[in-house]
Amino acid sequence: MGSRNGTNRGKPGQRRTASRGRVMFCHASGGFKSSANHIYRLVIYDVRMSRRAMSEQTFLVLTVLAAESLHGYGIVRAVGELSQQRVVLRVGTLYGVLDRLCADGLVELDSEQVHNGRLRRYYRITDEGLTTLAGETARRSEAVRAATDRLRVRGLLPGTGGTA
Questions:
Q1: Whether the Cβ atoms of residue 139 and residue 113 lie closer than 8 Å to each other
Q2: How many CA atoms are closer than 13 Å to the CA of 92, on its beta-carbon side?
Q3: What three-state secondary structure class fits 72?
Q4: For residue 38, with 0-12 CB atoms within 10 Å meaning exposed, 13-18 middle and 19 or more buried, which class applies?
Q5: Full strand arrangement of the beta sheet holding 32-34
Q6: Long-range contacts of range 45-52, CB-CB < 8 Å, 24 or more positions apart?
Q7: pLDDT at res. 158
Q8: Is 125 left (phi over 0), alpha (psi -120 to 50) or beta?
Q9: Model confidence over 42-89: pLDDT tens digits?
Q10: What does 75-99 look like in DSSP terms, one character per residue?
Q11: What does the alpha-carbon distance between residue 54 and residue 125 come to, in Å, rounded to a whole number?
């Protein structure tokens, strides 16, 4: 049954997400499965990553996965290094980002390996994820150019411009 706040729940251990107009459940296997049996109240939305602003965490996760497939802790470590420890991903945040990226088709499960008795899931960026990352990189580069130009005019950066 749907809860009072309008959310729906699947079986224990599943998380609900939406993708392309269908309600999907993230299973422990790392995959997403559509399940009409688990939908009690129809709350569907269709928002793909390309249509909404990309968070810095999402941008950094895609960036580190563009270099190589990584498991969760490897992603956390690589994002920390890339951001010079300015962005510290917590596990809940990381897996929320990965769930959304998987649902949007930008990241997929690459492999699973047992390490010291624990299962490690490795994720890789898809071709669509690389295209999305390239577009977001261009968008952010243009914003940086615009900010740099404005700061130079105000004399706050080296180059031609007015006084501070």
A1: no
A2: 0
A3: helix
A4: middle
A5: 15-19, 22-26, 32-34
A6: 45/18, 46/18, 46/20, 46/21, 47/18, 48/20, 48/104, 49/100, 49/101, 49/104, 49/106, 49/132, 50/104, 50/132, 50/135
A7: 85
A8: beta
A9: 334 344 444 578 999 999 999 999 999 999 999 999 999 999 999 999
A10: HHHHHHHHTTTS----HHHHHHHHH
A11: 16
Block residue for tokens 């999907």: 24
Question: What's phi and psi for 116, nearest 5 deg?
Answer: 55, 40
| Half-sphere CA count of 136, side-chain side, radius 13 A | 22
Question: CA-CA distance, 39 to 33, in Å (whole number)?
Answer: 12
* Rounded distance between C-alpha atoms, residue 130 and residue 124, angstroms: 10
Tokens (6 digits) for 41: 């109240």
